[in-house]
Design a protein that fits this description.
This protein is an alpha+beta fold. The protein has helices at residues 87-99, 116-125, 163-169, and strands at residues 2-6, 11-16, 21-27, 29-34, 37-42, 46-49, 54-59, 63-69, 79-81, 106-111, 130-137, 142-148. The strands form two sheets. Strands 1-8-3-6-11-12-10-9 form an eight-stranded mixed β-sheet, with helices on one face. A four-stranded antiparallel β-sheet has the order 2-7-4-5, with no helix packed on it. A hairpin with a 4-residue loop joins β11 and β12 (142-148).
Length: 172
């Protein structure tokens, strides 16, 4: 584990780590390059790099990063693909999936856009219980690893399908 402080304009040249690497942006704004593909990373965001993948970064402003190298690439995770799910069902489905996780378990959310409102909603309704790590960050597909890092408190509520929608889809 390392704390990396960069001044605006500083960079870390392209390199490869044998182990999986997790980068948590504490402050600032950087462009992270994974196999020369640029990914913007801002304060509070996390990304994961598989072992053996070439990466480097460029700081756009003074930035602090927590970098953790953690052994081998994790086993294949279950994916929850939202692209074909009706919009009104997506958030309740993600919360239900998350609420089934044990501490340290995760799943990968797949979407056709960056689900920033879902990230904020989960942080507000499950504070301190999860991490949100971009595995693939657009432009056409987003893969986000959602990991449970703390147990349920027992007082959680979940978003529900709007009642006006439920009334419309009920069988006659």
């Amino acid at each position: 584990m390392a704390l990396l402080n960069l001044r605006a304009g500083q960079s870390v040249s392209e390199h490869v780590a044998k182990e999986m690497v997790t980068v948590y942006s504490i402050s600032g704004h950087i462009t992270f390059y994974e196999n020369r593909t640029p990914i913007d990373l801002r304060a509070g965001e996390v990304l994961w790099i598989a072992g053996g993948v070439s990466h480097g970064l460029q700081a756009h402003e003074d930035s602090s990063l927590l970098v953790v190298r953690a052994g081998n690439v994790p086993a294949t995770e279950e994916e929850l693909d939202l692209r074909e799910i009706p919009h009104f069902q997506r958030h309740p489905l993600v919360f239900a999936k998350f609420d089934q996780l044990a501490v340290r378990d995760s799943f990968v959310l797949v979407n056709d856009h960056d689900p920033v409102p879902l990230n904020r909603q989960m942080g507000g309704m499950r504070p301190g219980q999860l991490t949100w790590e971009y595995v693939t960050r657009g432009p056409d597909i987003f893969r986000i690893r959602i990991r449970r890092i703390a147990p349920r408190t027992g007082s959680e509520t979940s978003p529900a399908v709007p009642t006006s929608t439920v009334a419309r889809i009920r069988p006659a």
